[in-house]
Amino acid sequence: MRGYQKLLVWKEAMAMARTMYILVRAFPKDEQSALGQELRHAALMVPYNIARGHQRRRAGDLLRCVIAALDSAAEIETLLILSSELGYISVPELKDAQTALDEVVQNLEGMRAALSAKANDPKRERRTGQAEV
């Protein structure tokens, strides 16, 4: 098992991505390849960026990937709201999906804060050559 697979935030992001994929299955066929594809892609990018950043081992690199994951989370939220407004998902489905997304975002924000502090401490990375993750 790779190190990133042990991270709670990665596990939550994978569960959230699965939820988005399941939601898209109920979209109208023409929207599965349009709006649905955008939602699936954004959902996939969250755990992808967590894994990618974790493999790089430097606080600055991981921080950039965490920010990219947060950017994708904002895209997901926007696409979920639009999907609900268009009637593709119900209000309860929207709330459940937002709850799953909020858990991931909260953990990513915590990582961003911790990594920002490490990235701003040049002695730590210069000394070890790696960020503690």
Task: Write a concise keyword list for the protein shown above.
single chain, elongated, about 130 residues, de novo design (two linked rop proteins)
Structure description:
- It is a single chain.
- This protein is mainly alpha-helical and 133 residues long.
- It has a single domain (3-121), classed as 23S rRNA-intervening sequence (de novo design (two linked rop proteins)), CATH 1.20.1440.
- It has helices at residues 8-25, 29-32, 35-56, 59-85, 91-119, 122-128.
- Helix 1 packs antiparallel against helix 3.
- The two termini are 16 Å apart.
- The model has no long low-confidence stretch (mean pLDDT 90).
Task: Sum this structure up briefly.
The protein has 133 residues and is mainly α. It has helices at 8-25, 29-32, 35-56, 59-85, 91-119, 122-128.
SSE diagram, text form:
Elements: H1 8-25, H2 29-32, H3 35-56, H4 59-85, H5 91-119, H6 122-128
Helix pairs in contact: 1-3, 1-5, 3-4, 4-5
